[in-house]
Amino acid sequence: MAGPLPLGDPAPADGHLPSSVRVDHDVPFSAYLHVPFCRVRCGYCDFNTYTSSELRGARQEDYASTLIAEIELAARVLTEAGGLRPMHTVFFGGGTPTLLPPGDLARMLDAAASAFGLEDGAEVTVEANPDTVTPEVVATLAAAGVTRMSVGMQSAVPHVLAALDRTHRPENVTTAVRAAREAGLDVSVDLIYGAPGESLGDWEQSLDAALALDPDHISTYALIIEDGTKLARQIRRGEVPMPDDDLQADMYELADARLGGAGYDWYEVSNWARGAEQRSLHNLAYWRGSDWWGFGPGAHSHVGGLRWWNVKHPAAYAQRLAAGDSPAAGREQPDPEAAMLERVLLRSRLAEGIPIADVPESGRERVAELIADGLVDPAAALRDRQLRLTLRGRLLADAVVRALTD
């Protein structure tokens, strides 16, 4: 399970937003639907997820109805805050959304679409564990309005999957992708690099296997050791080594070369797509600071600059909604300085970059230094007044953000 929730102000039981927060109909609106169930918790994962033995009173078979109650509450709250907007994107994440019957996911999507509406051409994504995908599951999701499936491949190498505690077989990724394609869905695959015992050759094998699937989109994430996870405990006990930063840098450069050579363009530090139309619109909504409502236990929301987060445990989440109360545990409204820092953190990771004018004044004074260090594109900075990361800058993105915001 994930760490503690953020500190913040108490959230009202009725979920109403402060009078200072009004819906801006020019800002896109998205929905994130969290499904917190997993058969097995992966050793590296600190997401808010629960195996069957940890539910303590919550029931998976009741979950869709519970989440739909939050959708109904959200519609009331947003109507009072200025009106409803059709959803630009919908994303089912987890956990393992496809552990639920596909009919339950369809019910949740239908409830959200009925409450808010869907924009024409809206992107609707479901994350999927390869072992839970069948042609019947995908056909039901496609018929319900799902347009995109994000398959948790992680690796094509058995010993790397074992190091990550992933239980799926590599061949099931191929089966899942084929089923999604046959149902007419766009396909993304997720990879993780830097697992204990993973070599550069292992990583190359995984990249080759991912490219052989011919997906529309590929995400590659460096393994991060999160406190409280099984993997963090194994490292602390000396059972497995810490990820090697230099090796992870080599792996990233290899991914950029192989994916770029295969026709995929990077548009965010960890994401590549085959053309602009295949980019993850949902993730772009986060990076560009759009509005979204996060449904489900532990989910976070953002509307009009206000942020809030739900109680974490599925049982507490269900109890709140059964009583007619909001599941929100706390909320905050960042001040202008904090909002600026967050904007730099998120927008600088995009290939489109961030206008220099949106960077704090102290950061603007560091631009020449960043150019000299090969971290930002000199032509974009000098001609377009736009900060765009170079390949070296992507490898050192956190350092660039610190230079721009310290």
Automatic annotation (TrEMBL):
Keywords: 4Fe-4S, Chaperone, Cytoplasm, Heme, Iron, Iron-sulfur, Metal-binding, S-adenosyl-L-methionine. It holds the Pfam family Radical_SAM. Gene3D superfamilies: Aldolase class I (3.20.20.70). Its main location: cytoplasm. It is found in: Cytoplasm. Residues 23-262 form the Radical SAM core domain. InterPro entries: Aldolase_TIM, Coproporphyrinogen-III_oxidase, Elp3/MiaA/NifB-like_rSAM, HemW-like, rSAM, rSAM_sf. Belongs to the anaerobic coproporphyrinogen-III oxidase family. HemW subfamily. Probably acts as a heme chaperone, transferring heme to an unknown acceptor. Binds one molecule of heme per monomer, possibly covalently. Binds 1 [4Fe-4S] cluster. The cluster is coordinated with 3 cysteines and an exchangeable S-adenosyl-L-methionine. This is Heme chaperone HemW. It comes from Microbacterium istanbulense. The gene is hemW.
